[in-house]
Amino acid sequence: MGEKTAARVSINISRRAQSAIKGEKFLMSWNISRYIYDDYIIISIDLQNPQRNAVAEISKLGDSWFFNRLFVPPEHRRKGIANALMEELVKILDAKCITLRNEINPYGDMTYEQLLAFYKKFGFKKTEEGFVRYPKTKKQELNVK
Ligand SMILES: CC(C)(COP(=O)(O)OP(=O)(O)OC[C@H]1O[C@@H](n2cnc3c(N)ncnc32)[C@H](O)[C@@H]1OP(=O)(O)O)[C@@H](O)C(=O)NCCC(=O)NCCS
């Protein structure tokens, strides 16, 4: 087993988010961190409480990559944070040419059907191999801004 390599990159993103309560649009700004290891990738959004960050985590088991966790703390849901995490994640999947397997196990606000539509938006498909996202591009240098 080779040594693990890690890269942490912080990106500040701003976007218009929709308030779940009033429906108004407002500008939000988050710091996204990417931790990239040989067999583990975490995208995290700093929400001022390290125990309660929003995260997308994937890991490699054997030759296959699996989605471990997509979680946004309840008090920060419906602000577009999961969308932001997934946008970062799919950039890395494409840049590193990773095929990612996923299982939908809802344990929060969204139902199975809602999560299915959500993941499909990011390229996941039901295939004979399960619910999978294949990379869109050939392997390339990871230079995600
Ligand atoms: C699933 C989860 C990560 C979504 O996080 P979020 O930050 O609230 O999601 P976003 O605000 O980015 O919304 C993503 C999309 O889902 C929709 N959505 C979010 N919550 C919803 C809800 N309660 N009902 C209906 N749609 C919802 C949004 O409208 C948005 O759709 P759009 O991109 O078409 O506009 C969050 O609810 C969570 O952590 N749940 C518990 C853990 C879980 O179930 N993880 C999935 C395991 S497979």
From TrEMBL:
Gene3D superfamilies: 3.40.630.30. One of its GO terms (molecular function) is acyltransferase activity, transferring groups other than amino-acyl groups. It comes from Calderihabitans maritimus. Transmembrane segments: none annotated. InterPro entries: Acyl_CoA_acyltransferase, GNAT_dom. It comes from the Bacteria. PROSITE patterns: GNAT. This is N-acetyltransferase domain-containing protein. Pfam families: Acetyltransf_7. Residues 1-143 form the N-acetyltransferase domain. Signal peptide: none annotated.
